[in-house]
Amino acid sequence: MAEQQPLFDAAEYKNAQREQWNKDGVSWRYWSPFLERWYGETTRQMLDLARVEPGQRILDIAAGAGEPAVSAAERVGPGGYVLATDISEGIVELARQVAQERGFKHVETRTMDGEKLDLPDGTFDTVLCRLGLMYMPHPVTALREWRRALRVGGRVAVAVFSTPDRNAWGAVPASIIRRRAQLPPPVPGQPGPFSLGGPGMLEGIFNQAGFANPEIRSVPVPHRAATAAEYVQVAREAFGGFNAMMAQLPAEERESVWNEVEGSLRSFESPDGFEAPGECLVVAATK
Fold this sequence. Notes:
CATH superfamily: Vaccinia Virus protein VP39
Helix content: 40-55%
Oligomer: single chain
Number of strands: 10
């Protein structure tokens, strides 16, 4: 008799995500200059595809420490409105601080589950989600909720990572960590950085959620740093998922894993510095 695969526990996973970002959100904000150099072009293309204009009402899901909410706030101007939401109350507070520092009085922040919005129907012109949907256990449910919150003719724009072979910045560390921590392969339905990047996956979930003819662009996101060591410092502090994967290992073993990751990533060093390949898919559709 075949061994039964363990079921994915969505509620447990969401609690772990909330705790992780409550803990790691400060580091994500600290490294934001690096992160915006890497993901800034993805944000710009999201806002372009979403057709964000002055005066619009914008909902940002999984806003993290303030992006793309702040970039959207610049585009809509003081006559518009941006609601930045995230499942982690700690990182939502960081987004509030960022908006306050920028003087954006038209940005509001709320802790909210992206799969279950505490919002009325048809009240937003645009819904944005940068690098969040692939971490949600029920992406079709999430998209249906976002569609519900949109006015007729409103747009949703989402960015996710594509496939592991096009994202060495994450695939190389994850492969090493998975081997060293003796982790089983992901179970069916388990979210993750590359869970929505396969051929036809985005079109499929958008169609299931009621969106017709989604537009999809691929955007290069090379992860650049001075050296592999500098990149690893960013990754181990800002990308909490890596640390979560090896949480059961002793501290000395975790340090050894990071040393192996750094050694492997040195293949992306050159006289010009460090550059690991990456790619996002940006998709937008109309209600």
